[in-house]
């Protein structure tokens, strides 16, 4: 809900009522969760779910009415169970539809069969509306009374019973959904076992991709302030190794600031001339799930947000098209007094692998930085200065080795590049007015 919003919740509840594909979107745990949020919150979302269930049930009904035999064949229902259901339907009619909608294993079947067996559409509209309200209400009641019971027992989220599973509650919920979906797929004995196992694998992959895309999309605009770095902060790089730390997207680990450009008026044009490709960033762009997928498959995945003292950048490039491995560069513009050449700090590193990392409560895909970042730093410093006549570079900074605590190894130094006739970062910092 946080990642995709209420429209996606409405769509999920509609799909949950449709035959065959409903097993891939089990929404009942969502209703239970929303019940735990009552009475303070959750009410509007529950109402939305009731509307979605009612809309979806109309779809199931009309599928049964227009293509009944083919739909029933796809559902692979046992003839004996079908005969019992028809006898109940003929005796109870609308009441049977209402009650059956509250019983998850037969709810979708009943909606389809109401269309197959010729129930009047007007009657079904009313019966399915009552059934939708009662079906959602029963799950919400389970959540509400469970939460109330825990509260009566004096158990709060910080208590030992709940704190043990607290950090993993989303993961546990996803595993339960995956287990349920897999069991339902494996029960479909009509298909060969290898095909059913392949379906279960696709379900797991789809859930994993959806969670990761949802997490990235919901945080696409939450990177932090995109602004110039204060000069004093940039000068700190001469005394200590500055670390750009991961922001609200889980794609990257922290990495060192290891590059400084002085006098390069248009680094974007320079990098383009060297064949580098500009990356969209979570800091500078609003990115939806389809755009993330499109860019990734095009070999230009969006650059995640790494923050230097809380400041993000939308200046990101990669050396060539591809996802892994690739060399990536981010630049932060430094606010310098008027009359001084433009200054940029940068983090250059080689993305070497894709890994799985627990991000808060959810397993998330992440890129791993090649641990020996100095190699990429020196190579790109040589390439950039070679492209500008008279440009030079040298290593400056603290020269204190860093260890693998930050997922990389480095000598901790900064490659300071400058164009002809301009002072480098060391000279600019030495000449700045204190304060």
From TrEMBL:
Cell compartment(s), UniProt: Cell membrane
Protein name: VTT domain-containing protein
Signal peptide: none
Pfam family, one: VTT_dom
Residues spanning the membrane: 7-25, 45-64, 94-118, 124-149, 161-185, 197-216
InterPro entries registered for this protein in UniProt: DedA-like (IPR032818), VTT_dom (IPR032816)
Lineage of the species this protein comes from: Bacteria, Pseudomonadati, Pseudomonadota, Alphaproteobacteria, Rhodobacterales
Record-level GO cellular component terms: plasma membrane
């Amino acid at each position: 809900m946080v990642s995709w919003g209420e429209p996606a919740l409405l769509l999920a509840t509609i799909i949950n009522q449709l035959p065959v594909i409903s097993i891939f979107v089990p929404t009942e745990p969502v209703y239970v969760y929303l019940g735990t949020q009552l009475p303070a919150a959750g009410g509007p979302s529950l109402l939305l779910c009731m509307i979605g269930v009612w809309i979806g049930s109309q779809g199931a009904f009309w599928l049964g009415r227009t293509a009944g035999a083919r739909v029933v064949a796809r559902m692979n229902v046992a003839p004996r169970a079908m005969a019992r259901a028809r006898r109940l339907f003929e005796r109870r009619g609308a009441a049977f539809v209402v009650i059956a909608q509250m019983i998850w294993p037969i709810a979708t079947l009943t909606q389809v069969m109401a269309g197959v067996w010729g129930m009047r559409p007007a009657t079904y509209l009313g019966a399915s509306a009552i059934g939708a309200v009662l079906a959602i209400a029963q799950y919400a009641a389970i959540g509400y009374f469970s939460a109330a019971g825990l509260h009566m027992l004096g158990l709060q989220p910080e208590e030992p019973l709940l704190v043990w599973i607290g950090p993993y509650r989303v993961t546990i919920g996803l595993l339960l959904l995956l287990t349920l979906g897999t069991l339902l797929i494996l029960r479909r004995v009509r298909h060969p076992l290898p095909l059913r196992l392949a379906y279960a694998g696709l379900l797991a992959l789809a859930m994993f991709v959806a969670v990761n895309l949802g997490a990235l999309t919901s945080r696409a605009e939450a990177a932090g302030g995109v602004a110039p770095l204060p000069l004093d902060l940039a000068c700190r790089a001469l005394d200590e190794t500055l670390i750009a730390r991961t922001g609200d997207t889980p794609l990257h680990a922290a990495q060192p600031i290891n590059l400084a450009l002085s006098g390069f008026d248009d680094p974007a044009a320079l990098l383009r001339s060297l064949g580098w490709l500009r990356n969209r960033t979570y800091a500078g762009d609003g990115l939806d799930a389809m755009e993330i997928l499109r860019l990734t498959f095009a070999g230009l995945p969006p650059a995640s947000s790494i923050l230097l003292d809380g400041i993000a950048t939308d200046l990101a490039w990669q050396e060539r098209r591809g996802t892994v491995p690739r060399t990536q560069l981010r630049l932060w513009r430094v606010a310098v007094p008027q009359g001084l050449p433009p200054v940029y700090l940068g983090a250059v590193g080689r993305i070497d692998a894709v890994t799985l990392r627990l991000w808060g409560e959810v397993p998330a895909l992440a890129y791993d930085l090649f641990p020996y970042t100095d190699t990429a730093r020196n190579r790109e410093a040589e390439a950039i200065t070679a492209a500008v006549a008279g440009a030079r570079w040298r290593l400056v900074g603290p020269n204190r080795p860093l260890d693998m605590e930050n997922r990389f190894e480095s000598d901790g130094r900064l490659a300071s590049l400058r164009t002809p006739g301009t002072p480098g970062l060391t000279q600019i910092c030495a000449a700045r007015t204190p304060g």
